[in-house]
Sequence to fold (142 residues):
Amino acid sequence: MQIERPYLLFLGDARDQLAAKTADGIRQWRPDWCVGQWRLAGCKADLGLKDMDARAARDKGAKTVVIGVANRGGVLGPSWIPLLVEAEVALGRPREALAIVERGRARAMLDLLALGGGDVLAQAAERAQAQHDAQALQRIEA
Fold:
């Protein structure tokens, strides 16, 4: 597998520089592969690269967003998912965007199963309603 270059290094809302060690390593060892960094509000890490979002990075030639942080629990933060989906679409990778969405839905189903007890479909329907996800709700009720 080859990851297309150059990269936009996504730092999210990293709590410190150590949390961004993957991105830091890429920047140190392959600075010519990096067009910028994408930091969210509250991000405490800084790679010394130009701050930009996915559209700006695309305009600078970025081909891939690299998630360069270790998030607590090893899962994507819920606030990151729409941003990463938007980034994949901006970079011309709609299949990857769909994969992010589907992984998020699969994770939500696993969370429901881990809770145990009760009617899993009813719990899934409640969650879909709470998240205003009409498509998921339609699939559950089918």
Summary: The first strand starts at residue 7 and ends at 12. Strands lie at 7-12, 34-39, 64-67. Residues 118 and 131 are 20 Å apart (CA to CA). Helices lie at 21-29, 54-59, 80-90, 94-115, 120-130, 134-141.
